[in-house]
Amino acid sequence: MAQNKKMVEAITGRDEDFAKWYTDIVKKAELVDYSNVKGCMVIRPYGFAIWENMRNDMDRRFKETGHENVYMPMFIPESLLQKEKDHVEGFAPECAWVTVGGSEKLTERLCVRPTSETLFCEHYAKVINTYRDLPKLYNQWCSVVRWEKTTRPFLRTSEFLWQEGHTMHETEEEAREETLRMLQVYIDFYKETLAIPAVFGRKTEKERFAGARETYTIEPMMHNGVALQGGTSHYFGDGFAKAFDITYQGRDNKLHYPHQTSWGTSTRMIGALIMVHSDDDGLVLPPKVAPIQLAIIPIAQHKEGVLDKANELYNALKTKFRTKLDDSDQSPGWKFAQYEMKGVPVRLELGPKDIEKNQCVLVRRDTREKLFVSLDNIEQEIADLLVKIHDDMYDRALENMKEKTHVAHTFDEFVDIAANTPGFIKAMWCGDSACEDKLKDVTGGVKSRCIPFEEENLGDTCVCCGRPAKHMVYWGKQY
Amino acid sequence: MAQNKKMVEAITGRDEDFAKWYTDIVKKAELVDYSNVKGCMVIRPYGFAIWENMRNDMDRRFKETGHENVYMPMFIPESLLQKEKDHVEGFAPECAWVTVGGSEKLTERLCVRPTSETLFCEHYAKVINTYRDLPKLYNQWCSVVRWEKTTRPFLRTSEFLWQEGHTMHETEEEAREETLRMLQVYIDFYKETLAIPAVFGRKTEKERFAGARETYTIEPMMHNGVALQGGTSHYFGDGFAKAFDITYQGRDNKLHYPHQTSWGTSTRMIGALIMVHSDDDGLVLPPKVAPIQLAIIPIAQHKEGVLDKANELYNALKTKFRTKLDDSDQSPGWKFAQYEMKGVPVRLELGPKDIEKNQCVLVRRDTREKLFVSLDNIEQEIADLLVKIHDDMYDRALENMKEKTHVAHTFDEFVDIAANTPGFIKAMWCGDSACEDKLKDVTGGVKSRCIPFEEENLGDTCVCCGRPAKHMVYWGKQY
Questions:
Q1: How far is B98 from chain A (nearest CA, A)?
Q2: Which structural domains are found in chain A, ordered by start?
Q3: Min CA distance, A69 vs chain B (Å)?
Q4: What SS3 string covers chain A?
Q5: CB contact under 8 A, B143 and A142
Q6: pTM of the entire predicted model
Q7: Interface confidence (ipTM) of the complex
């Protein structure tokens, strides 16, 4: 158990230094490696397997809601990026620019895509002609680049992987429905797959996406009381359509501009996974995305019959769960620590005495609970346990979010909570962005997270200026 | 049927102008759209769905052979690219260079990856320490950029999607085995999934990948007698390992350099699919990768019971095959032409008379054969038919390859065949690259395709220079 101890000690405590704890996990669980390229990360096999599980799950949800995948070029000519004014203002400062191709200087420089609205619009202008061509429900999985000064694995990197949905609709109503439908897909995915609860709603005008008329967001709460923008869904109106001259012949035989949405999530969700669920021994992964759901560790594996039985179990269970049998010559203690660090939801221990009793030991990663289970019904026991682990992880995350959600009725209360009890602050707001600016300044970074769909009435006046309140807003610091 | 006729006429004949026929199919089957970005293509939903099916199939094969997916940065600092001399010489002329990030000029310019050997090596240098860390069997799905002057969708574009495997091994023997194993995976994939036969073997020294000690290739034959390099697998020895200082402590406790491979295939395989199988009515897709395997077309769908029965069939079959029921208000003839253009392997026609007889009509896309089939056993009939279509497509492609494979015993014969009967030329060769150069010059582009694993003895002397022959080589023009 000496090695077990040592591995555990190698991680900074979560309450001691949250930022260092986070990067320790990212490294020790072998999720990423830093690269020589400033701000870019290498996503290692274990990290990428998590992303593959997330991607496959989301992709299924997108296809079930009628979306199709496409692939757009990774370069955007500067003139194309400039077609929509608000959009280029939002993104130009963080573009990486290709200026040389082969040995020749380009006549027009190309931006490596930070997002692909402009490319989709250019294509839509060609393929949308009549109402019969609508809706267009496209999605793309790709990498994008935003030149960042300070970076952190998964949370903020110059290059990251994401999906971006871009859709076109006949009417504003349809487009607005799509925007909300995809927000709901994200909410469901967070809950059902990542075991993460969140608040959600629409962004204030100040926090909207560049060029959007409405931005919806899902905002999960990290363990340390900092929020994370977990995914956004935008309604664009016909602004881009006008800028790109996208028109369709309507049912009335007249020309109309279609209504547009976009929505996206990224590898930053892996950051959320870590910061919501993990602990001082490493990753804790929800079963649905864990690359290994079950680790079988033989005890006293040199004794007769142990490896045979372990292999028999492995062969029975591997078609049902993502299972790993570790019969390497490392000690059981080393293996325990290893799979704990990697967040494997269930460990199955099997030794000579267990075999005698026709049982094994199941150990939950999330609670460390040990269960002695008959081998007769092992498959069902594990299936039930994985469901229970998921549900319990969700409940604990929900508990954490509730604990870290506070109500401020006055300016002083707001400032006090921001300084002393990090988390969400629910407070009334007048609708003026000047108050958002002021609250951000005095608190060192607390911003409006969203206006929820169901607002509570916490009073009649803005917590900042005292004028009549228009909305209840969730506020908080963010990654 | 007027519209059917019209759509068919819209494609240039394959024998009339092969290049135009190809681009007609690519556009009319809605596989790609050209973009404003020079040399880059938009892969549309139908084209991307083919790629997804190919990718999922290959990815399964990679995982079954023990490989793991990762993601490396898309940028390579110029100094990193220059670490392996042969490699940089091969790729520098076709790099796209990022020179500005945000608003600042970069101190070192970054190449958008044309291939990622250097990035993998940089990472391997950090994570390989002892023989226990070997083998490393990594693969990456991503897009790469090679600045091309003239481009053609799927076959040659400035940006394309691909997979690149990069592996590290303890011994030369193991690495060479891996190189051949992955070539075999490609051969199997081409045969079992794409229904495409090919010749395969190793490249001559002149045709090797930049920096490789051995390059293996799979070379399918297109319908017009031009070959396509369909996938390559390289053994690198320890050249990169030395350049990147990658060492491991061996079982003998001494430091060693590991042995490396890489192997890749790309969206160019979609070009092969088109040029091997398709015809004057459009795409012909092998069932394994067809986005729609079965199109159900109701006949006289306004008549009572037709749509009900069509829906009943659709619901029964959609879980078994990728099925589309087209009950739109277009005419059956228009629909026939539409799904023919898109290469859907089987069309199911169902009209009132069929329903009376408890039957339907199945029409094969590849042969146009019509089959009247009882509805009692329809699922099994379709399953069998899809297998038969695959096998017949493979056989026809094999027949085409055989017809287009010629033997040249003399220089004059070689030149005559090259000029008059395009295809593979089997001919003996002395091993001197000067003869490759000469044959290429006099034939306007015929190059060595590969030295097969089983060489025939076609004579004792080089077809070019008359000196003693060392190898039998497949020669041919290429895309």
A1: 4
A2: 8-277 (3.30.930.10), 294-386 (3.40.50.800), 405-476 (3.30.110.30)
A3: 6
A4: CHHHHHHHHCCCCCCCCHHHHHHHHHHHCCCEEECCCCCCEEECHHHHHHHHHHHHHHHHHHHHCCCEECECCCEEEHHHHCCCHHHHHHHHHHCEEEEEECCEEEEEEEEECCCCHHHHHHHHHHHCCEHHHCCEEEEEEEEEECCCCCCECCCECCEEEEEEEEEEECCHHHHHHHHHHHHHHHHHHHHHCCCCCCEEEECCHHHCCCCCCEEEEEECECCCCCECCCEEEEEEECHHHHHCCCCEECCCCCEECCEEEEEEEECHHHHHHHHHHCECCECCCCCCCCCCCEEEEECCCCCCCHHHHHHHHHHHHCCCCCEEECCCCCCHHHHHHHHHHCCCCEEEEECHHHHHCCEEEEEECCCCCEEEEEHHHHHHHHHHHHHHHHHHHHHHHHHHHHHCEEECCCHHHHHHHHHHCCCEEEEEECCCHHHHHHHHHHHCCCEEEEEECCCCCCCCECCCCCCECCEEEEEECEC
A5: yes
A6: 0.96
A7: 0.95
